[in-house]
Amino acid sequence: MKTKQLFIMIAVLLSTSLLVAGCTKKKDVVETAVGEGSFNTLLAALQAADLVTTLKSEGPFTVFAPTDAAFAKLPADTLEDLLKPENKDQLQSILTYHVVPGKVMALDIMNLSAAKTVNGQSILIKVGADTVMVDNAMVTKTDIECSNGVIHVIDSVILPK
User: Cβ-count burial of 31 within 10 angstroms (0-12 exposed, 13-18 middle, 19+ buried)?
Assistant: First the structure.
């Protein structure tokens, strides 16, 4: 009887260990954005642009992610127009302008003046005493690590030239 109880205890401990290990697994960029709760507009745009699968892939990616409040700063009807199927190419261009290939952490950004985006164009980076600007957007939160990259939160949508 003691052997059976010991076996059951070991099985329970192993199951618990595996469950805990599964809970600590990092989420990908998209799953992390969903969990943050302030990127609903970005997620809708990624879906409209057919970029969700790309950002769930291996990466790594550095995403300068505008919040819902950042998208709200766009002129009226701009977002609505961009989400239309006929504007998919333009939306993809804008969204890929927010993504830099590789995993660029905040400390790395401090040494950059520009970074080439997946869009093919470069974003300008200005490091001040208390702020970091990416084009016209202020970085408000850094280093949200994901299994396939990192997210830095920005307060405005940045637009390619």
Answer: middle
pTM of whole model > 0.70?
Answer: yes
137-146/132-134 β-pairing: antiparallel
Contacts of 35 (CB under 8 A, 6+ apart): 27
Three-class DSSP category at 14 = helix
Mean pLDDT of 48-57: 94
Per DSSP, what are the bridge partners of residue 116? 122
Using CA atoms, how far apart are residues 60 and 89, in angstroms rounded to an integer? 23
Q: What pairs with residue 137 in β-bridges?
A: 134
**Coil/strand/helix, residue 111:** coil
